[in-house]
Amino acid sequence: MHESDERYPPPLCHPGTREVVVTRIVGWYLDNNRGKKHIMWVQAPAGYGKTAVAGTVTEKLKAMKNELGFNPVGAAFFFWRTSPERNSPSRFIITLAYQLAESIPELRPRIEAVVKSKPGIVKMALEIQLVELIVQSFKCLPDFNAMPNRVIIVDGIDECINSDRESRVQKQYAELQEIVQIRVLNLIHCLQSHHLPLSFLILSRPEAWIKRHLESSHFREIVEPLDLREVGDHMSDVKRYVRVELSRIAASHGLEGVEEEWPEEAWLVSESDGHILYAATVIRHIDDPYGDPRQLLKDIVNNSAKSSPVSHSTPLLSLHELYRQIMRSCPERNRTLMLEVLEDAIAFRIRNIVRRLPCGKVLELLDRLSSRSLGSGIKALRPLHAVLRIGSMNEPMYSLFFHSSFTEFLSTPPISMEFSVDLNRGQERLLSNMLNCMTSITMNTISEQLEEHILFSLNNWCPLWSRLSLGLFQISRAAHICMIEKMLALDLSACLIRSYLSIDDSQKRNRYHSPVWRLFSSPEPSNFLIQPMQFTECGSIIHTATSHTKSSVEAAFISLLQSTELPDGSPRAVWLIACDCVDYLKEVVSRADWKENKLVQELRSPGPRGIALFMEIFQQYAPRDLRGYIYKSMLHDRNPILEREDHPFQDLPEVDVGETGSDTGIDSKSQSLLAGL
């Protein structure tokens, strides 16, 4: 939302800038004669301040509440590609519904009633959420057509890149980004088609598929397009912004002539060509407490003159040249380390769960994982304060980069040239370093306190390996074999147990919070380490890796069921272990010889400290054949677990146990009763 803590303070236009476009948008909303044009699409390339415009429009409209007699902003949603909660549409509809219940009090009772009667609505398909929470809530009001029109502001649809599904092929993954963005547009179209008292302000880059969809016959008659580049005097906006900022820098650095124009000021305004991101990046670069701002600006001018083919090109190319100049300003002796830390940081930001960690903590973790001296990562990145938020190390990791155009620059070698970073290499190094850290985990050290980077490795190696298995990053065949050899050298069962024991009860139960759930969610967990590469000439390593995974997983579950020495896991840990165990048992039971499996046999008689785990396994969706087999075995063995009032086989028939019977010694009458389990 506009006011959410995650994006506070919300980006706004610099005072006195973008006034024409803001006025144009507000005028569109207030115009009662706009006919069918209930959607305005504001588009511009990266760095034209679309999000700032959206924030300023929101503030301006909310300030009109007393004048209009109602809050004209019904809801807002700001997508952002590096935020795990804002780069997918999963929270889009429920966030809009929540805000509509606040901004339109008449809707609140109806929306509350839906949530109370259908708690699962928050997990249903977005299209169902839209109808149940918003459309039907409006239509339950007798006079909703007479209600004043509210605007819903949706910023950064092109930043919605995560469909909550992973693809096995990078190309498919890219295609999913297009599909999910079109899905969001279709949700907006669906809302509009019900003729509710709502208008929609959409802001995005002019991506080809977005442009094509909004210009299609479905949208053409209802969309008011607005090219941000063609509205207002952008040069005047940049000039005003630069003048204010240079005066501020002069005052804060104690320079003479605070209000005087700098010799390079006109050049900076001209070079930006109305592209405010360019000017803002230069301002951050020269606003260095350890440098001379005027000399830094002169250096940019002088270096730009040496790159004349670029400096007279489009603003985005000028921005890329500026990025190269900023990178070149870093000491040459530190550049290799700087690029390595950037690769590590970008690879780290892929992990949704950990991207909320503060930048300082993350860079320290990366130093420890890479065996660098502590603080060397921050030191290597310090000259990049114009493009990275490293002034305060308490900023969350997902907001490390000021603008996505810098990460795009780094990952495009023809543009960044000698400063390009290789995301595949960064993820490979991160995974390799994690596996190195895990070598210290054995059954003898399992109860010891772990250093933070080792615990981080235990909890994050599996999701990163999953990305490798799904083809979301690529390494060479030799590197993959090297990774497998590192895994074979680990006490994997001890690593699995230790990662489970690190789970506390600080969060709600969520299946996807298990540190290794991806291992057990794969079709064949035993083959997790060798997917997707086909080692036609390495049959031995395939067999060894598969056998190692299988034996380690089973040894971990058996230890947790039978050990008398392991520390007790938290209730949430026991629940997650049971989830993973059930998923693994589904693969086991699919084999013809599953009854001879060691884990299956141990389930017949869990140890005293493993009973809680046993109960969770069979209170969940354990395979049907397995439930029947274990129940028959326990009946035969007269296991005291069956005397508990809460034993997990309450739904199965009670039978008398005889002295004979196949498999478990059950008599023929009991065999007949249990045959269908």
UniProtKB/TrEMBL annotation:
The keyword Transmembrane helix does not apply. Residues 32-205 form the Nephrocystin 3-like N-terminal domain. This is Nephrocystin 3-like N-terminal domain-containing protein. It comes from Candolleomyces eurysporus. Residues 648-677 are annotated as: Disordered. Residues 661-677 have a biased composition (Polar residues). The lineage of its organism: Eukaryota, Fungi, Dikarya, Basidiomycota, Agaricomycotina. Gene3D superfamilies: P-loop containing nucleotide triphosphate hydrolases. Keywords: Repeat. It holds the Pfam family NPHP3_N.
